[in-house]
Amino acid sequence: MIKKTIDYKTIAKKLLITLKALIWGVVGLVFIKVKSIMKNELWLIGETDITAQDNGYHLFKYIRGKYPDKECYYLIDSNSPDKEKVEILGNVIYHGSFKHLIYLFQAEKHIGSHDYRYWHYPGYSKIFSKIFGRYIKGKFIQIQHGIIHIKSERGFHYDPQKPYDMVCVSSKYEKKLLEDHFNHPKKVVKITGLCRYDELENQEIYEKFIVFMPTWRKGLHKKEEFLSSGYCRLIEEFLSDKEFLSLLRTQNIKLILYLHVKLQHHSEYFKKYENDVLRIVKLGEESVQDLIKKGNLMITDYSSVSLDFTYLNKPVLFYQWDFEEYVRSYDVQNPEEYQKMRFGYICRSKSELVERIKGYLADDYKVKSIHKEKSDIYFEYRDRKNGKRIYEAIEEL
Questions:
Q1: Is 331 in contact with 153 (CB distance < 8 Å)?
Q2: In the predicted structure, residue 323 carries a pLDDT above the cut 70
Q3: What is the Cα–Cα distance from 283 to 216, expressed in whole angstroms?
Q4: What is d(CA 238, CA 248) in angstroms, rounded to the nearest whole number?
Q5: What is the strand order of the sheet 139-142 is part of?
Q6: Which long-range contacts (CB under 8 A, 24 or more apart) does 357-364 make?
Q7: CA pair distance 233, 236, nearest whole angstrom
């Protein structure tokens, strides 16, 4: 059994940021009591503190292009590999800065693709929220990280203590799910589509790619826990499978592995498997959207990014080697329905996965009609006007 270690360096860094935020928070509150320094229509937009490649970034890009005079700012960590993408657009605020605190208290609209309790507040967000949460006014808008389809995670449920004033969805099906299953008020849920889909289109390139994007798992942040997990072992076995590697070389195809942002710090471990047909992509090297554009086939386990892929009418394979454990860990209340709604073949073993890959290669990556019918219910719009709908809906709040 591997002995768990405490990451004192990370804890100390977080505590320092939290202490600084608390001090600046007090100063900020005093300051805004004396003088109002911002316009009323101040918008704050973000994703996680280190990314600018999801719906937050694409909405910000849309607003900066269409409405450059809008008092709209993007919140990101100063060490983020994505920061240059937003810096060229202007109106950037660095996470944990004094400006972050002042604008946080003044913002009328707080807009994010992830839960604002985690990306919006500096340092240890729970501590900051407990002390200063009551002073942060304005409306909170959830523009979504992905399309919700049967997921049972607590974060999607309506929270009367910390409610959203608007939640964006992509279809009537998803709206009904949020209202009936997750208890969001009907007036809050708006069918707009995801902003990042406005720039999603197939990229014609000479090379063929299979994109492997497994989602994250709980309890795997630390290196020791990750390396001893079945999650890591199954990925390793797949990347080193001789039959699969031989298939890639014979068919002149390359595989790209891209870990979920919450596990990106483990990407370096898999670099040892890189070769002429296998590449490990780290955060900042290529965006998820760019990988989706150029991929011919996607392999994931449970990630909603699969819907981005099928939006482009490209096939998805679900490699669910740990389904029973996943159901228990994430409180999936109806496992049979969860599987029935999948819009691609479900593979429970590596051998089954390789055989399905062979089938798609032989059929020139053609999406099966039964899978296309299942995926179509998730998209109300395909007109590249999602950003416009979201912006107008926020303005009306």
A1: yes
A2: yes
A3: 14
A4: 13
A5: 92-94, 72-76, 43-46, 109-112, 139-142, 166-169, 189-191
A6: 357/210, 357/244, 357/247, 357/297, 357/299, 357/317, 358/247, 360/297, 360/315, 360/317, 361/247, 361/251, 361/253
A7: 5
Residue 111: what pLDDT? 96
Angstrom distance (rounded) from CA 131 to CA 147: 33
Tell me which DSSP letter residue 340 carries.
H
Question: Do you know the residue count of the chain?
Answer: 397
What whole-number distance in Å separates Cα of residue 71 and Cα of residue 41?
Answer: 6
Tokens read off for 172: 């009537």
Q: pLDDT tens digits for 263-302?
A: 999 999 999 999 999 999 998 899 999 999 999 999 999 9
Under 8 Å CB-to-CB from 269, ≥6 apart: which residues?
A: 226, 227, 232
DSSP codes, 294-315: H-SEEEESS-THHHHHHHTT--
- Comparing CA positions, the residue from 160, 117, 167 lying closest to residue 142 is 167
**Helices and strands in the chain: count of H runs, count of E runs:** 17, 13
Whole-structure pTM value: 0.83
On the question of pLDDT at 35 being above 50, the answer is: no
Q: At which residue do the structure tokens 């709209």 appear?
A: 72
